[in-house]
Amino acid sequence: MNLPEIAASDVAVPAYRVSQDAPIAEGAGSAKSDTRPVAYIMSRFPLLTETFILREMLELERRGLPLEVFPLLRAHASVRHEEVDCLKAAIHYTPFLSAAIILANASFLRRKPGRYLRLLWTILKGNWGSTNLFTGALGIFPKSVYFARLVEKHRVVHVHAHYATHPALCAMIISELAGVGYSFTAHAHDIFLEQRMLAEKVRKARFVAAISKHNKDFLLRLAPDVPPGKIEVVHCGIELEKYDALGRGSSDRLELPNKAITAICVASLQPYKGISYLISACERVARRVPNFRCIIVGQGADRAKLEALIDEKGLRQVVRLLGGMPQHQVATLLGEADLFVLPSIIAPSGQMEGIPVALMEAMASRLPVVSTRLSGIPELVDDGVNGILVPPEDDRALAEAIIALSGDHSLRREMGERGREKVAAEFELHATVESLFALFSDVASETEADPSSVVPKTVAAANDVDGGIVEWVGEQVSQITGRQVEVSFKPLGGGADSNVFEVMARDEGPPIGLILKLHRPGGIQALDGVGSGRECAENDFNALTYLWSVFSQVSTRLAVPRPVAVAPNHAALLMEKCPGVGLARAKRWSRFRRKSSGSLADWFEACGEWLAIFHLATKSDGDPSQTFSRMERDFYTDLDLCGQRGLDPDLVLAATRRFEAEKSQAFDGRFGLVGRHCDFAPYNVLVSSDRVSVIDFEGLQQGLVYEDLCYFLGMHELTPPYHLSRSMTAALRKDFLRGYERHSALDRSAFEFFMLVATVKIMGNSPILRASTNWLALLKRQQQLRFYRAWLREQLS
Known about the structure:
Elements: E1 38-45, H1 51-62, E2 67-74, E3 90-91, H2 99-111, H3 113-126, H4 131-153, E4 158-162, H5 166-178, E5 181-186, H6 189-192, H7 198-204, E6 207-210, H8 213-222, E7 231-233, E8 261-266, H9 275-288, E9 292-297, H10 303-312, E10 319-323, H11 327-336, E11 339-342, H12 357-364, E12 369-372, H13 377-380, E13 387-390, H14 395-406, H15 409-426, H16 429-449, H17 467-481, E14 487-494, E15 498-505, E16 514-519, H18 520-528, H19 533-554, E17 558-559, E18 563-567, E19 572-576, E20 581-582, H20 583-586, H21 594-617, H22 625-644, H23 649-666, E21 674-676, E22 685-687, E23 692-694, E24 701-703, H24 705-717, H25 726-741, H26 748-764, H27 775-796
Parallel strand pairs: 1-2, 1-4, 2-3, 4-5, 5-6, 6-7, 8-9, 8-11, 9-10, 11-12, 12-13, 17-23
Antiparallel strand pairs: 14-15, 15-16, 16-19, 18-19, 20-22, 21-24, 22-23
Helix pairs in contact: 1-16, 2-3, 2-4, 3-4, 3-5, 4-5, 8-22, 9-14, 12-15, 18-19, 21-25, 22-23, 22-26, 23-26, 23-27, 24-26, 26-27
């Protein structure tokens, strides 16, 4: 079958951007002398393990931005960084309760009683079910109200929190009471362990700074109605020069006979750092590498357990725990080491890394690094280029990587140089703080210009069909029907990107048979100056036009909606209303309706045939390497979500091992690129007696044939047993594949691999598994989790 190709550029959906063009500064990179301060909130201060927050604040002050610091707790550490004394900002340490705090609460209760009480109820209700978050919310509420009073007093223009848990909640309370905007930086455990109120915090924030793309993707899955441009990737940065002047560069590290090979690990002694796996790996390394030693810098609750493990393995002469150290001493040790190891894992609690700053510091010191393929780490460490990545919880693979680097001085030097280049290009403090400074500048400028703008605009305003669109639709209907018709709109739903309406006639004439799709980015663009609804609408229209032409020539039974018109200025698309009901609905109670089995078999076979024709029509000869990278990144993001939402660690590990074992064969390039529907599932298929139509092409992108195919079958297999029996589900899968293979051959081994990927994707994005305080929803969540466990085990068998 010879069909024309569709160019990826014709259907690309542009990303949202937060404008960074509104400067607050009089000169480049500096703030006005009369600039109102930004408040910083963190859990504890000063904390030895949170050097990155201190560096960030110092750099902002160097740019002329005044700060007010509001720690929730005062840290009393025996070791502290000297740079704390360089901070100019006032640090407001407060108890949990005092006369001043009581007076501040009484004042807000008198001035804004409704807002105060609603806010208290909202945060207690929202955090119910989590002992940590609920007791924390109850504890910090009074002092957060007091902070709101101080924010008013010091004329703070914006509040920024580090961590999405208690600090972000404090920022949200201040914002509600003091009328200033807030933002927060999302790191790792603060978003992965518990998500109560997290989506609400994201929605209400002026912006969110995610330390990695992995974190951004996670938050967008959690709050799919949030425009992507609201979440900016802002890496934690390091001062590059401090890891060159204080330590020797790798080019100066001498390779002498019988020289000891020193591996260093800088990490808090907590389960998610995986230090026990490093100690086990050191036992293997010591047998094969003479004069090998490993030093571990950090403190934490696991120290006694790790010391016992070192004694058990007889490694006192090989592994040393040095405890916590200030930044300058760590830099010196990095300069004296040969390689850096950080064996991060997902802890039983679900805690895991973001992008560890310790890895950045090691790479800045020109050290080759060994770490695990987890969370945002692959965004920093390029496997085989500036370091080696191994699967989590695999001490054998960890040992082999250390041994490989220990025996190759040239490789260590080459990787060390590439590592410093990577950090200098993407994780240097001045550049990362510049991004944050620009975001602060934007929100401060908006607040100065329009104080009411501190209330975040939402996408809700884009839901209305405004007069301009009504007029445009009326003109199109008149051209089609030949009569003047007053139109109205019946909401049909929509998603994070669009709202869909059926166009209705107010007279008693025949139905119009049109669907109006309003691309939500267009509404956001009109409100907030971000996104491009024009491009989304045009891409959707172009894709539909091409596909409608293809399917019209190929089949009278297989179809897409016929495009009617597009109004880019309104981000609006008008198309025909396809006949039939949703396939997902048509499956309901089918096991009790014998007559429906024949129709379902025909429809599933037609769906498979539709997808094969779609793939033939959108086939291209592009380089699939970026698609492979995207799929791998998404797989681990989705698997992380599964772990956070209760999937057994042994299943997470088994899925990881299966993926790693088979990905090289699946990603060998033999499967060409095709168009990817992105949401090809039974709920986006409309079926009738003589037609099968597929809708919703807004997310059309490039991908592999197995992505849509396996996602469709995965969603199909989620049908509850009271609708379809297991034998019926299996038979319909065969019908679907038979329809597909009528036009294109399938590789069964690849099919099984991509079914695993689709399974993890569906589980990770399941709305049922998201945290809820409703007991009925929690019960449903546990039932679904049991089903998912069995389903994944079946895919892994």
